Every structure is written in C-alpha cells, then in structure tokens.
Amino acid sequence: MPKTSISGLLCTITIALVVLAACASAAPTPTPAKPVATTGPAVAPAPAPTVLAVATPVPKLAATPAAAAKPALPAIDEKAVADFYRGKTVKIIVGTSAGGGYDTYSRLIARFIGKFIPGNPNMIVENMPGGGTLVATNFVYKAAPKDGTVIINFSGGLVNQQLVGAQGVEFDAPKFQYLGVPSVDQPLLVVTKASGIAKLDDTIGPNGKQLVIGGTAPGSPQVALPVAVREVLGAKIKMVTGYDGTTQIRLAMEQGEVDGYVNNWTSLRSANRAELDSGKWLILARFTEEPIKDLPNLPGILTFAKNDEQRQLLRFGTISPNQFGRLYAVGPDVPKDRAMALSAAFAKTMADKEFLAEAEKAKLDISALGGDQIGKLIVEYLAMPAAIKTKLQQMPQ
User: Of 331, 358, 276, nearest to 51 (Cα)?
Assistant: First the structure.
C-alpha cells in the first residue's frame, strides 16, 4: 500500500478515536391611623443575666455568626450596570417608622451596600409607614421608578396577607425580585409585668385573663401572630391596632395603653434590654420551630397546641413566614441585570467584615438568606396544604 494511503488511514483512525472519546466523556447539561380596638372570640456589652417570665436567664450576648447569602448568579454586564448606577442615588424605602428594627437594619445596610453595587451609587433611606409595610410595598410594586433605584424593605407577613386574600394587597409576592433577608426572624410575645400575666397559660381558657396587645395593621406580624394564638388556642387577647411601628407600640406599653406586643428577639435585645433585665417586661413565648440560643428555656408556641390541626395552623400561621421576615426586593419590572447586581451586592454586604462588626456592636443578628432562596421559600409557602390555607383564610385579620 502506498505511504500516502497508510498515512491517510492512520489519520482517519486517529480522528475517529478522538471523536469517540469526546462523546464518551461529555457530561449532560443540567437543566397611620388612630389605634382602633378590636376583639375576637374567646376560643399570642450586655448586662448581667436576669430571670424572665418563664424563668429564662438572659446570658451575655455573644457575637452572632453570619451565614452570608451567596446566590449563584448568572453573568451580568457589569460595565453597563456600573454606567447606569454611577452618580445616581439608590433609595431604600422602609415600610415602618424610624427607630424600629426594620429601620435600624436598613440604615446599617445602606452604609455598606453602595460599595458593592457596580458604579458605587449613593444610598439613602426613606421611611414610608402604614399598613404594616403594606403602603410602601404597594407603592414600590405599582408606582415607584422601575429602573433599579428603589429598594423596598417590607414585612414577610404581607405574603400571608396575599395568601388569605386580605383587602388592600395590590402585589403578587413571587413576582418581586428579591435581594435577600439579613436575618431569619425570631418573634416573641412580650408583656409588661404590670399586665399581671406571667405566662401564656394565664390567658387561655374560660378563666383566662384578658391580654391587650398592640399592633400595626391587620395582617402584620404584630397582629397576625397574636390573632392566631387567640383563634387557635382560645387565648383571651384583645388587639389594639393602628400604630405606625414598634417604637409607638413600646411607648403605648410604657403608658399602660396596651399590655404587650410581638417583636423580634434581635430588636428586643438591642432596644429593650434594660426592660427585660429589670423584669419590667416578660417574654411569654417564641414563634420559632427550634429553641433560641439565648433563651433556651422559653416555650415555643407549638408546645401549647392540643392536637395536630392546631400545630399545623400555628406552624403555617405563625412560624413559617418568619423565614422571610425582613424582605429586601426590587419591583418585577426592574431590568434583570440590575436586580441581579443588587442581589449580589446584598450578599457581599452580608459577608463584609466591617458590616458584621457594626452589626455586632448594634446587637443585630445576621443570618442571611439570598434572594433566590427567599423566592423559592415564598412560592413553597403559598402552596401550603389546601385545608390549612382555608382555615387561615377564615381567621379574622
């Protein structure tokens, strides 16, 4: 056989082997109003430790480790995003009044997130209280600029309001583009010692004492959680609603206008440590599945359930929404590149050493979840069992 034929044959065989090897190793591609009283049927460096209502010692506060949100984001045109944001001002709209927990988190985040947004825009915070963050949320969803210069910080309790078809909800929660949450909420039911209520059982049953709880708007966590306790457990709870935020509710407690309220452990230990340590305020229960590290002996709300239906109602009505409590998002029409850049900047902020040091000084918990994870949790929550959804929809708001 001629040399040229042999060479050609060897070349052909070699090419064929290379193609076969490539095919064999290829992996598949993965696819503000005046407070209004409402009642329901009678059927919710640190000082030295003290004893709370449930004989729970409050230890010295330790630094809270950060579980930084790190969403896997597709590549974005960073130059185009930077060109847009350079020289602009990005506004974080907080749906509560100044001085509360939401406001405190947002002002801290605003100090750091700008350096992680391409183009390094200026950051400001604006308060738009009303409706338990409903007013601000509706505004951002419908009327705010849709260019990525407005971020909304709103309550995850509004997702529950969408679930039950509450009046005034003008958004579809899954359509927001989420940046993440800085921490998973740990709501507690807190009362004044002057209320005469030392434990939650004191309010339950035909001989229970009446407990007057202050709240913002129907459907907010400050209202929805104690209402669920009233409706599911038969606690004698009277709601007084219409406060702009937790700052105003705390003032009402001091003045004897209400007996207590629901607030997060992070906010309580930051703003009201003195009241807890002195015994002036007492904690009755936590709305969490697992114990809180700082309050290991505090009873969870599920321990008061008498049957599986009550446990399910309390779990979906008072615990599940806490995973997405302090939401940060932009509207559905914001360009995807900018929304993804803001989400990435949020994740980097949650992992920033200087930010974490300032959060520790302010006693703010950082246990962040990323935007993609939040979006999935909200979709899963809205797809809860039909029977439980119906029961929750039938509860007074």
Answer: 276
Q: Would you call 108 helix, strand, or coil by DSSP?
A: helix
Nearest residue to 101 (alpha-carbon basis) of 253, 272, 256: 272
Cβ atoms of 355 and 110 within 8 Å: the answer is no
Q: Which amino acid is at 121?
A: P
Both tokens assigned to 375? 């979006």
Same fold, 36-61+186-319 and 78-184+325-394: yes
Task: Please tell me the CATH superfamily of domain 36-61+186-319, with its number.
Answer: Periplasmic binding protein-like II (3.40.190.10)
Please say whether the structural domain 78-184+325-394 has been given the CATH code 3.50.50.60: no
Cβ atoms < 10 Å from Cβ of 309: 13
Model confidence over 95-130: pLDDT tens digits? 999 998 899 999 999 999 999 999 999 999 999 999
* Residues 231, 237 contacting (CB under 8 angstroms): no
Please, what is the end-to-end C-alpha distance for the chain in angstroms?
92
Q: What is the mean pLDDT of residues 164-172?
A: 91
- The string of DSSP letters for 71-85 reads --PPP--HHHHHHHH
